[in-house]
Design goal:
Structural class: alpha/beta
CATH superfamily: Vaccinia Virus protein VP39
Number of helices: 9
Strand content: 15-25%
CATH architecture: 3-Layer(aba) Sandwich
Number of strands: 7
Radius of gyration: 17 Å
Number of domains: 1
Largest sheet: 7 strands, mixed
CATH topology: Rossmann fold
Helix content: 25-40%
Distance between the termini: 26 Å
CATH class: Alpha Beta
Order of helices and strands: HHHEHEHEHEHEHEHE
């Protein structure tokens, strides 16, 4: 059962002001009607949204969308639903969708917690990506971090049995918390002995490459939802 305090208080973002560039605004205005999905609070038919049956991967907080577009371009056989609240990021990803002529991306501009809870059916996703969420590095702000037991339990309920949850962070303290939270969930199993090697499908961002050159760490975690146990 979902924690009522989690339902009332957690948000997947902090609203920041930002202005779309002319290119981002043009992409938003012309492509959101085709590739965007409005928040309705009602269950979403994912196959209908993409116009086909294919593996469905959710990405929460895609930033400016470069990694999202690259992953979708590399894997046209899969469908990617991205959730991001910030307009410039949505406009940037839609601009890339147009430039790369991608057909396998859909975007929702809304709080991810509400989208997952209200719009995504149980057992509907083949994978979930959360790459470099806000670390809220001050200790008194740690409670604002997205990766908390209640939200992880909600995410797991939307994964198909055997589907994966992939997190990545460049903040070691958050990586430790992520590992603790995921390891404590009874429906998840770690695919590695602790942190995982970066899967080939996750591209290195420019920011990440710069950090690695400076000796900064990056931690990936890949867990899977346990298969359902058949009654004897």
């Amino acid at each position: 059962m979902e924690n009522p305090d989690f339902q009332r208080h957690i948000k997947s973002f902090v609203l920041r002001q930002g202005h779309l560039t002319p290119g981002q605004k043009r992409a938003y205005d012309t492509l959101f009607p085709r590739f965007g999905i409005e928040y309705t609070g009602q269950p979403l038919d994912l196959d209908a949204a993409f116009g086909r049956q294919a593996a469905k991967i959710l990405e929460i907080g895609f930033g400016m969308g470069q990694a999202s577009a690259e992953i979708a371009e590399r894997h046209p056989e899969q469908d990617y639903l991205g959730i991001e609240v910030h307009g410039p990021g949505v406009g940037s990803l839609l601009k890339l969708v147009g430039e790369k002529q991608l057909e396998n991306i859909r975007v929702i501009r809304h709080d991810a917690v509400e989208v997952v809870r209200e719009m995504l059916p149980a057992d509907s996703l083949d994978g979930i990506h959360i790459f470099f969420p806000d670390p809220w590095h001050k200790k008194r702000h740690n409670k604002r971090r997205l990766v908390q037991p209640g939200f992880v339990a909600l995410l797991v309920s939307r994964l198909k049995p055997g589907a994966y949850l992939h997190l990545a962070t460049d903040w070691e303290d958050y990586a430790i918390q992520m590992l603790d939270v995921l390891s404590a969930n009874p429906d998840l199993v770690n695919t590695a002995a602790g942190y995982a090697p970066r899967p080939d499908y996750r591209p290195l961002t420019k920011f990440e490459q710069r950090g690695l050159r400076l000796g900064h760490g990056v931690w990936d975690l890949v867990f899977r939802r346990k298969p359902l146990v058949s009654p004897q």
